[in-house]
Write a structure and sequence with these properties.
mainly alpha; two-stranded parallel sheet; two-stranded antiparallel sheet
C-alpha cells in the first residue's frame, strides 16, 4: 500500500482456500496444499484485509479484470459488501498494453531492465508492478501523474461489471 505521503505498508498472508490446490497450479505460484493447511481462511482474514485497504484506490497488474473482481467476489462470498463506488482502479497492465503490448515479465525487463525472481508469487509480482508503474510515469511524459487520470487512461471500456465482460457501446447501451 502506497500512502499519499509516499510511505509504504505491506500486508502478507497465505490463505487456506478450503479446496485442493492442483499440482499444475502449485507449479505456477509455488504454493502447495501443505503450505496452506494451517493458514487462515479468507473469512478469517477478511476484517484485517478491509482494515488494511481502508478507503484506498486499487492498483495492480491485470487487476481490473482479475484481482479486483476476485477480491470483491471473495468478500461477497463471506458476506461482506466491498464497496467500489468511490474507488479508482489503476491497471498497470493496461498502460503497458496500450503502450507496448507485453506481459509483466517483459514489462519488468523493458522498463526496469530486471528479471522477475519468483514470478507469479503475489509479493514479487506486485513489487515488479509498482516498479513498472514508476518507470512508466517517468518514461511517458503524456501519461497522467494522478490516480484519477491513470484510472481513466487504464480503463479499456465503459464497463458495467468490474471484470469488463459487460460493456457499454458508444451509445451508452449494453452491447
Amino acid at each position: 500500500k502506497i500512502n499519499t505521503n509516499g510511505s509504504e505498508e505491506r500486508f502478507k498472508s497465505l490463505v487456506n482456500p478450503e479446496i485442493h490446490i492442483p499440482e499444475e497450479t502449485t507449479k505456477i505460484h509455488g504454493i502447495s496444499n501443505e503450505d496452506v493447511k494451517d493458514a487462515p481462511t479468507f473469512k478469517e482474514l477478511a476484517s484485517s484485509i478491509i482494515a488494511f485497504i481502508g478507503n484506498a484506490d486499487l492498483a495492480g497488474y491485470n487487476s481490473n479484470k482479475f484481482d479486483v473482481p476476485m477480491l470483491v467476489d471473495e468478500f461477497l462470498r463471506v458476506g461482506i459488501d466491498f464497496d467500489m463506488t468511490n474507488r479508482k482502479m489503476v491497471d498497470v497492465q493496461n498502460v503497458f498494453h496500450k503502450m507496448e503490448k507485453r506481459t509483466l515479465s517483459a514489462a519488468y525487463k523493458f522498463y526496469c531492465n530486471k528479471e522477475i525472481e519468483n514470478a507469479h508469487s503475489a509479493e514479487a509480482d506486485i513489487t515488479a508492478t509498482f516498479e513498472v508503474l514508476m518507470a512508466q510515469l517517468e518514461r511517458y511524459e503524456s501519461l497522467a501523474k494522478d490516480i484519477p487520470g491513470l484510472a481513466a487512461f487504464t480503463a479499456m471500456n465503459s464497463n458495467v461489471d468490474l471484470a469488463g465482460r459487460i460493456i457499454l457501446n458508444d451509445k451508452g447501451q449494453i452491447g
